[in-house]
Amino acid sequence: MTFSHPLARDAKVWMAHSRDGREQPVLVVVTTIELDPSSPRYKKLLVQRLSVAARDYLAKSAKATGFVLMSRPRDWGSART
Questions:
Q1: How many CB atoms are located within 10 Å of the residue 26 CB?
Q2: Which residue numbers in the chain have pLDDT < 70?
Q3: Which residues pair with 30 in a beta bridge?
């Protein structure tokens, strides 16, 4: 079962490594929606919809134990530092 949602451009389960060496599978969801709450383009409802869908996926699937939403890497260059 793969994660699919209209607001998600891609999704994949990756292994996250903690500082003590433990591994945890995490669902990484790539999206084009604005994720920065301080941005005027931020839409809380859209972020909530995508988060709820990711939580539902985690509840139904044993592939991952957590999730993270992220912007597309090609959008990172326009981010303010």
A1: 18
A2: 78-81
A3: 10, 70
